[in-house]
Amino acid sequence: MSDGASVMHLDMDAFFASVEQRVNPALRGLPIAVTGAAKRTVVTTSSYEARALGVRTGMNRFEAKKQCPSLIFVSGNNAKYMDVSTRIMEIIKGFSPLVEVYSIDEAFIDISGLRGLFGSPLDIGRALKKRIKEETGLICSVGIAPNKLMAKLASAMDKPDGLSILRPCDIKAHLQDMPVGTLWGIGPNITSRLGLMGIKTCGELGRANAGILRKNFGIIGERLGAMGRGEYKDPVRPAGFEDRVKSIGHSMTLPEDVWEREKIKMYLLKLSEMVCARARRHGLQGRTVCLTLRYPDFFTFTRQRRLSRATNDTHTLYRAAKRTLSTMRLRAPLRLIGVSLTGIVEGTRQLPLFTEDKQREKLLAAMDEINGRFGHSALTWSALLEPERTPGVISPAWRPSGVRKIDVG
User: Fold this and answer.
1) In the CATH scheme, what is the code of domain 176-228?
2) 247-384: which CATH topology?
3) Per-domain residue ranges for the chain?
4) Of 36, 49, 66, 206, which one is least surrounded by beta carbons within 10 A?
5) Strand bridging mode 284-294 / 140-145
């Protein structure tokens, strides 16, 4: 495009809360917060009415209610959000086939070839927003820019219901005094490290010496410098063209803090099955097991164990996670447990040599087939039948297809 604005980022505004207000008219105009269904949970998102009164994502119920005594809590319905998200993504694909679904409520769109069909980038943004509003009743914010980094920044410039464009000639001035932590992909840790180097704004980051950035951040140093200048080379990646998956994981905030090792092991088995079922579905295996634990004070840490060979076998992953746990002395009960496979490889499979291994492989295949047909927990391990099952909050990494798709009951 002649103005260089070829990438669009679409971000649904207060998505979960907006869906709930759309479905239930009695909630419209009121401060609501969407949470998980478990006894202890945090705010997943809140309506703009609640945000205006100080309610923020990540607050627990007590904190949120203290900020807004009239706040209405709504238990999240993952299946409902996934259905609406899928409809929205289909609307987007009606404009361009080059769509990268970034999360359940976000997408990047390559609009570089759409001028002849829909007009200018702003015309495309207006048409897409109008179509989504008409078909779902929901509003979104759209950012348009030369690349994904700047498009995501632009979509946050005028929320809610915003439409913003950053042309190449605007970027330097816009970034000059902007804090580095505002940029997508620069989290608190990197922000802190940059601050110790005297780099606090994007303008300072863009001007920083490349050698010093490499020395302090390794291979990503030059990339950080480019980001400070608004440069970003990663293209829009439609389904089937995504980067190779680096990890497959699940975590859960527990209904109550757990100290007993046997209960912890039960959750390890549940998480191991969730991880390996997804890995098997997509023909993937992992060489390293990662165990993530969080205490009630939110101190979080991870331990890894390298396997002798890659696997997607539930009990192999479970045993490795148990062995890792056995080497750890816990200083407090656990609030959250996570299990993941990293070092992902595709299409490799060692044929089972022993009868027991062959039987276990057949059992897992049968479980996967039944759960794929009747629901992901239709057939499960007996050790997991006792605890009450409560649906968790859907992962931000969810995708409508592929290995990031997480089934919910």
Assistant:
1) 1.10.150.20
2) Dna Ligase; domain 1 (3.30.1490)
3) 1-169, 176-228, 247-384
4) 66
5) unpaired
Say if CB 310 and CB 343 are below 8 A apart: yes
Among candidate residues 294, 394, 304, 395, the one with its CA nearest the CA of residue 336: 294
Residues 6+ apart with CB under 8 A from 206: 175, 225, 226, 228, 229, 230
CA 58 remoteness from chain centre = 14
Q: 357-379 pLDDT, tens per residue?
A: 556 566 666 655 555 655 555 45
Output the pTM of the full model: 0.74
Residue range 223-251, pLDDT digits in tens: 999 999 999 999 998 876 566 678 889 88
Residue among 73, 84, 5 nearest 41 (CA)? 73
CB 358 within 8 A of CB 349: no
Q: What are the tokens at 119? A: 């007009």
pLDDT digits (tens, 9 = 90+) for 374-407: 555 545 555 555 544 444 555 555 555 555 555 5
Q: Give catalytic residue positions.
A: 106
Q: Which helix (H) or strand (E) segment is 343 a member of?
A: strand 334-346
Q: How far is CA 352 from the centre of its chain?
A: 35
Tens digits of residue pLDDT in 255-298: 888 999 999 999 999 899 889 988 888 889 999 999 999 998 88
Q: Write the CATH number of the domain with boundaries 1-169.
A: 3.30.70.270
Sign of CA dihedral 146, 150, 154, 157: negative
Given this model, what pLDDT does residue 298 score? 82
